[in-house]
């Protein structure tokens, strides 16, 4: 090959980016954006959340995608893809759409066998080669109404997804404007805007097609991808291996029924089972706050300090509304220390319970997701007229290594829950099932429990006096100050026991303070 031929070959366009102006610098995807998908999951996010996909994952229409050896849950997600035409930095909602040059179809494939390994980042589960087919043609964004776009997906010729951008929780222009607040959207960048209900698993031999269009107007054409069985697997010496369980199967297929799993009995009551949950949502435990773990040293310090001492230090810093009121421990002798995982119930409405109360609802997902050293904190609005958990869920939390459970509602089967041995704080026992008063709504969100706000990742400490919530940013400062105060209080107690009056000693005046420090206090 001569030099001229070599130069021509190196300049040949990369077929992976055939539908795009060129190789994008960034591919940004949103976790959950369609109301139909959110309704399946039983919760709607307050704000959009995102993850990145490498541009090396892009593929053209007609390409094959490999399901790696030793895996089973390769899920498809038909989506509307936006292509940035002009750089956008801190653009407002009104002008955001003008920065979009093109619209096309995309398929945001994900390998659920690897999803738990990377939580919400999706680095390995959605970053594989060929995992982001786009195309085949671009629609001129200037020629379409961003609220009138339709996305449809077919599996082996059967229509399985059909929704429009009017059904999105967050309008397309909002995604552009929001992302531009945080970094510059550059020419050629691609935004994947989420998938509607109907995402499911593809198996080798399946043909998946996605089309984006304006009904009666311009179309991207059908984006075609064939699933094939790969021969290569993963080396256990290099990293974590694929792993699946019934939770991942349910989320990948869209429902237990679709996954071929038996219907799960509900501790929540006997109203009809709901539909599926979302396979396009953040991983359980994926919120940044929940990633913060307590070191063994910090946990031991918190276990050594009474809640009353921690409360005093928080009060000195202006934080008075940090106690979870109205709850009492089933194990008063046990200390509770952990980071919060939250679960929210809303008041019973029969139609909502029918849609969200049965099946694999938010309550069960929260108990399946709780990790070692975490505390499930439940918002039940102080309503004690039904249970918010029973012994089965307490056993599940205990088996997962949870540090405890706090609910400002009732506990069903209180004796059995107590026997499990996990620390539980509750407003009281009640024999009724969940569906008498509550609808399980969402988890890993900011909640109100016992009159105080609790966020995922907050530090929860409980003893016989009650339960307190400590902001993670303050916990080391608070515990150090509380330990120093405990040492000082112990010294004062010895002086009182020896017969000294409390006046001038508690709190210490200058004379007593000097004596305390002379004896080695406040080290």
From TrEMBL:
Molecular function via GO: hydrolase activity
Keyword Transport: no
Location of region: Disordered: 38-60, 253-294
Pfam annotation, one family: RraA-like
The Fumarylacetoacetase-like C-terminal domain, residue ranges: 27-226
Alphabetically ordered keywords of this record: Hydrolase, Metal-binding
Superkingdom in the source lineage: Bacteria
NCBIfam families found in the cross-reference section: PRK08245.1 (NF006093), PRK12764.1 (NF009399)
Protein name: Fumarylacetoacetate hydrolase family protein
Species of provenance: Microbacterium insulae
